[in-house]
Amino acid sequence: MNSAFDSVAENYDATFTQTKIGKAQREIVWGYLESVLIDKDNLKILELNCGTGEDAVWFSKKGHTVLATDVSDNMLRVTEIKARKNNLNDKIETKAIDLSKINEVNIDEKFDLIFSNFGGINCLTFEELFKLPNSLSRLVKPGGRLIMVIMPTFCWWEMFYFSLKLNLKNAFRRSSTKSVKVKLNGEEILTEYYTPILINKVFGKEFKRVGLKPVGFFIPPSYLKKFFSQKHKTFNFIKKLELFVTNWSLLSNYSDHYLIDFVKK
Ligand SMILES: C[S@@+](CC[C@H](N)C(=O)[O-])C[C@H]1O[C@@H](n2cnc3c(N)ncnc32)[C@H](O)[C@@H]1O
């Protein structure tokens, strides 16, 4: 499938996944996932908006099987190459799925865990988001988990950084009632921001919330990577601060992302 993310795919790992900020934010997510996956073997995982497959490889190295899906064919291609390089072809299958049309997709399996990392959900309009719980509920086993990492409507780092640059439009762009055009590697991506409360309301009929945590309260958004690239000591200190507040769920409202964890009712 064609997507605005196609042109981003080739450089995505170099410009996000492998950067200090990208790695530090993902470590927070993986830390949480470790606690959920502990003592669990050979789970069936459906990954939504898998991007370049970094998480799919991580899950499958732990012995789980992953159906890694994304709207962008180029992202899926990078995932396939990564799976081959890691000898994980038998653990990772890829499939083109547009989240906004997931209700039309034929998947017979049911999964132990559905996972969406780093803002794929923010690419959906409210109308599309609203239809998601019903479709996902049909794909998850009873008692199965749905874990999503989403961008909220306010990020103090973003407000601070763009205010310093006297760019008030971007400082408060997350609170906009309209879709926001966000630059990612030169590509403009239409983005919506959703509070944890709203996500809880939208998914609350089919799913019960069991976890919420900030991802990137002290660790800044990835567009600050240049600023921090040589500031090793400062960045290590920031990572320590992040770990200190990692269980303060209220901070999810002010972070770059938050992780929200549901169990199927
Ligand atoms: C910021 S990237 C995150 C990628 C990956 N989850 C990660 O952790 O690095 C957002 C991903 O969402 C995908 N995406 C955007 N809109 C989508 C949609 N409607 N359906 C499925 N995937 C979508 C993009 O192609 C991109 O791979």
Please tell me the CATH architecture by its name: 3-Layer(aba) Sandwich
Range of helix content: 25-40%
Count the beta strands.
9
Shape: globular
Sheet having the most strands: 7 strands, mixed
Instruction: Quickly give the structural class.
Output: alpha/beta
**Quaternary structure:** single chain
Write down the overall mean pLDDT.
95
Rg calc: 18 Å
Indicate the proportion of strand residues: 15-25%
Protein described:
The protein has 265 residues and is of the alpha/beta class. The chain has one domain: Vaccinia Virus protein VP39 (Rossmann fold, 3-Layer(aba) Sandwich). It contains ten helices and nine strands. The chain has helices at residues 6-17, 20-37, 54-61, 73-85, 126-139, 156-164, 168-171, 196-203, 225-228, 232-245; strands at residues 44-48, 65-70, 92-96, 111-116, 140-150, 180-184, 187-191, 207-215, 257-264. Helix 1 (6-17) packs across helix 4 (73-85). The longest helix has 18 residues, at 20-37. It is globular. The relative contact order is 0.16. The model has no long low-confidence stretch (mean pLDDT 95). S-adenosylmethionine binds at residues 3, 5, 49-51, 54-55, 70-72, 75, 98-100, 117-120, 123.
